[in-house]
Design goal:
Elements (H helix, E strand, L loop, with lengths): L6 E7 L14 E12 L4 E16 L8 E15 L4 E2 L3 E2 L15 E5 L16 E5 L3 E14 L11 E14 L4 E3 L11 E2 L6 E3 L9 E2 L9 E2 L6 E2 L25 E4 L5 H8 L4 H6 L28 E2 L14 E2 L23 H11 L6 H9 L28 E2 L7 E2 L31 H5 L5 H4 L15 E4 L4 H4 L24 E2 L2 E2 L5 E4 L34 E3 L2
Parallel strand pairs: 1-10, 12-15, 14-16
Antiparallel strand pairs: 2-3, 3-4, 3-9, 4-5, 4-6, 4-8, 4-10, 7-8, 10-17, 11-13, 17-26, 18-19, 20-21, 22-25, 23-24
Amino acid sequence: MVLRAMRILVFLGLAFGFGAGGAWASGIAVSNVFVTGQNASSRTWDIQFDAAWDHSWFIAGAPAANANWDAAWVFAKFTVYSTATSSWSAWAHCTLSKTNADHTAPSGAQVKAGCSPSAACGGADAGKGIFLYRAAAGTGSVDWQRARLRWLYGADGVGDNDRVRVKVFGIEMVYIPTASFYIGDGSGNPAAHFQAASGGGAVQISSGWSAAVNASAAGGNDDDAQVQAPGAGLSLSGTGGIKYAGGSNLNAAFPVGYNAFYVMKYDVSQRQYADFLNALTRAQQAARVAADISGSAPDARYVMSGASLVVNRDGLAAPASGNGTTAPVVFGCDLNQNGVLDEAADGGWVSANDISWMDQAAYAAWAGLRPLTELEFEKAARGPSTPVADEYAWGDTGVYNVTGASADYAPGSSGTAAEAVANPAAGTGNAAYYTTMCYGGANNVCGPWRNGVFAASAATKNRQETGGSYYGVMDLSGNLWKHTVTVGNAAGRAFTGTHGSGALSATGSAVQADWPGFSGGGVTAADGSGFRGGAWLSQAASLRVSDRGFAAVASALRTYVYGARAAHTAP
């Protein structure tokens, strides 16, 4: 083995997520990043880092369908200095080893390379990140030191002696095991829920659905679907006047949810989205914000809402001036509107709103993840349980319903990592939705809360009071609408579940051709997408697990009720 000294002068441990401060802060912190152990023969370096987050767990599977844990999806970006131009290159994704043994897990943890099983870890989506999680059963906070990623720097065109900067990112995920589950809840609500074509009840998705599934359906949107058993094909036939007589099939590789996958534990936070923007070129940034940032001063400081002041708690901002015209803008959060970015109370932990489908797709592609399907959404919420009619993500039909103008949820430590609900409901479901928010009330929280706020606030840490799903995924009912891939039209049914490569087009779009909205070299439209889970401005019915009222509504807009969440097929 030949050792040489690559001139990696700057290593950045990026706290990427929701921060690690506060007794119940939900998030991950990555720190103490440096590069060591160069092997010039194989052209590899090891990227070492520490990772810590709260509320970690590992439940061993006996049977395997009961296995469930949380994990960090960890990936890295690099930039190379050019002496010819005296400048740094655009940030690019580090290609990591696809061999688990090449990476180093700290004591008490395990590491698994992120690959698609169908690609045998050889596809274009391989080597984009690793999952870091507990090695044995346990719960509580984790604080792991000296984890290592094996970076194949030669595969990324980096020279042995190049001057390089490296960033490491982490995103909290939840493992959803291979298991049968139900879509629809048998409520007899034909206007929204999946129903069996015979009998109108819930439909079980079992092992037969993981193979090629024949979906008899044609063009047009179907938020009102009936489903036949696998042997008869997945037949989408609307009961509200839309009748399909044939047409496009559900792609054989469409992620129907039976096989194991990971989903983000929380929505993308405002700090996460700012960190994403800060790793793009100026041209890419311009496509992923609403404001005009072509000049030194943006036309709107709050770049996702396109407003000069905070609207609906969207505090993601750009400096008011001094941004130049070519170098990337350095974004941050300024919820308190004092012009200073990323202070303790600036809302970095608040769920990012004003996120379009194209924004979410770009974020997922950049992180090496993929969109979530609407079938996976129901599994992540309900698990393998028998459906309860009109249930929410916490498994029953009870939800806090305020009755007085002063009874809205009251905030505590607003905008900080410790933001909490001062008066959560006891003994029933908690969620951010219309009747618990600002309209007619006194507390004026007109927008999303910080991620996982009810887990931080509830006195009894059960599913109902924390708003958690069967598998521990937070905020699936309420707070912000979740963009999902629909089965309600041909554009959605064509999805094959490919993952992002870590790269975007020059104009800032995801480039995966099977993703909804792909056209002309990038995901530039929303065809094939829809929404699940409701938002802070929604009525309670939209928060229900099986509600499909907007499941095939393709919206390309950025609005204050749209958030982002991504997934990854389990390796």
